[in-house]
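Peptide/nickel transport system ATP-binding protein, pasting as requested.
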Amino acid sequence: MSLEVHNLTIDIDGVRAVDGITFSVADGARVGIIGESGSGKSLTALALMGLLPEGAVVTGSVRWNGRELLSLPDRDMAHVRGDEIGIVFQEPQTALNPIRTVGRQIAESIRIHERLSRAELGRRAIAEAARVRLPNPESIVKRFPHQLSGGQRQRVAIAIALAAGPRLLIADEPTTALDVTIQAEVLTLLDDLVSHNGMSLIFITHDLAVLSQVASTGVVLANGKIVEQAAVSALLTNPQSAVAQGLLRDATATLWRPARSTGATDD
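Structure tokens follow.
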């Protein structure tokens, strides 16, 4: 399945936040959307999922496997979310329900799309927790989000996003709130899961060093517009836009390192 975004424009309370962006994600591809804070990258992710805030006006086209999503009724879009396209948000502390165990939250994402008994849902929740390499999954599914570390909460969020077997995963800055060591573990996990399941990936970040670990193609945003599209290897060695050059300087000054071998290949 492929995603085609054409001339996507988003206005928030009359202010243009995303301005006519066009890109595509082929089946199995790994595309990064990168830019500074306020560039429109997270709003783009929300538009793809039909989750824009009240007052937002969106135009253009978002076609998933030939099906237009922007005009899809809410009930139909609810089935696309999770079942076909999953999303992992930046801060799981706010994305997870604080008064439900993480096992119930994983099971709920499965229950929406599959008719299973309570016992079967419980077993699936444990299996999904194990798949994202949570320690002692039988025990951890009984805990509440506040009882987990930041890295563990992010793994729960990934488990929820992947539980229904989507073909496309959107990861919206999933490592920003984590320290460097846990960040590396989560990136490795995402890389392995995407490769194992043959999914497509949209990875959103402000960090070119992070992007180099998981994506092959980069879409650079600034002020809601695309200023450059290129292979991530080209962004690391010969960025053309001033924005990409600045992102490279920031990456070089922090934790940049040559991209390790992943399932991704440069287009």
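Note for the archive: The first helix runs from residue 41 to 49.
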